[in-house]
Amino acid sequence: MDHRLGHQCLAALLEAVSQDSRADANEPMPAGGEAASRPACDGQGAATHMNASDERNWILSAVHRAAQRTGIDWPPPGAAPLRDMIAAFNLVHDEVPALTYVQVAKYLDRAGIEPPSEYWLKNIPLAGFVFANANGGYILVQSDDPVPRRRFSAAHELGHFLLHFSANPEDDGAGFVQDDATLNESDDEKLAAQERQANRFAAELLMPEATCRTIVAETLEKSSKSSRYLEHRLAGAFLVSRAAAQWRLRSLGLA
């Protein structure tokens, strides 16, 4: 069974993290296994039926699980150690220039994983991609994107892995695949819910509410600062864009 679930990130949040700055570092690729897997019934089955409160608690639980697995206190005082959190689940976080389906196919092929045949024919740009099976997997992001965008893309894909994937030893080993260009959110209710959940996971992971509130309180305690100053303060602390910080401040009622 080939579990291919397309997604396109919510425009508002993706736009929010698409600011400039660059980072380096590509990690070496481990041998890719071919154990079986499938998306989790809990994540996909409940995706379109949770109320807002239950969905938020479910997403926060996934964030805390990632922190616990990484062995860090949550929330961290500054930017989340995203690469370490991804590695804690035996996932490789790699940055690929000009990421497309063709590049994904080449990457998986080098890792000893047979990619879907149609990938070789689709030269469509991707911001992020995740492949996972029972042995681990790969989160790939577009290396040409700015640092905030790359961090969001990686956190978004980790959200898909933690919320929508479950290893299934009885499956045929095809693996769990998420990409960001196959299907528009409006085309499918379940996929739209999964996109919302992965985006909210990324926001909670990269900009924890408690730390946001602490930074704002400490900043305002010293002097009266403008909302723009607070946005820059959060952007620097979390390695996100100013627009992302602005969105987070407003969503928390802090601006």
SSE topology sketch:
Elements (H helix, E strand, L loop, with lengths): L2 E4 L4 H6 L24 H6 L5 H19 L11 H6 L3 E6 L4 H10 L17 E6 L2 E7 L4 H18 L11 E4 L9 H18 L2 H14 L4 H12 L3 H10 L4
Parallel strand pairs: 1-5, 2-4
Antiparallel strand pairs: 3-4, 3-5
Brief descriptors of the model:
255 residues, alpha/beta, five-stranded mixed β-sheet, 10 helices, globular, disordered N terminus
Can you tell me about this structure?
There is one protein chain. By secondary structure, the protein is α/β, with parallel strands linked by helices. The protein has two domains: 3-206, no CATH class; 208-255, no CATH class. The chain is built from ten helices and five strands, in the order E-H-H-H-H-E-H-E-E-H-E-H-H-H-H. The protein has helices at residues 11-16, 41-46, 52-70, 82-87, 101-110, 147-164, 189-206, 209-222, 227-238, 242-251; strands at residues 3-6, 91-96, 128-133, 136-142, 176-179. A five-stranded mixed beta sheet has the order 1-5-3-4-2. Strand 3 (128-133) and strand 4 form a beta hairpin. The longest helix has 19 residues, at 52-70. It is globular and about 60 Å long. Residues 1-46 and 181-186 have low confidence and may be disordered.
